[in-house]
Amino acid sequence: VRPRQPSPPPPLVICERTPRPSTPPPLILRERPPTPPPVMQCETSKKKKKIHIKQIR
How many folded domains does the chain comprise? Predict the structure, then answer.
């Protein structure tokens, strides 16, 4: 019973340490990089498609 108790604590600590640092970065990445790139890619894709259609027509 003694070796079973020390085994579960390590995973809990790793699980708690991973989500803590992973939570702040995602928020910053989602508020700055992910927001502008998606909009720019969407606009570029629409503009490119419109240009291609105009050129083909």
Answer: 1
Q: Is residue 51 part of a domain?
A: yes
Token digits for 13?
């600590």
Report pLDDT digits (tens) over 4-31: 555 555 554 554 555 554 445 555 555 5
- Integer CA distances (angstroms), 11 to 17, 22, 25, 31, 43, in order: 10, 16, 22, 30, 44
Domain annotation covers residue 3 = no
Predicted TM-score (pTM) of this structure: 0.16
Domain that holds residue 40: 9-56
Could you give the angle at the alpha carbon of 28 between the alpha carbons of 17 and 48, nearest 5°? 135
Residue 32 identity (one-letter amino acid): R
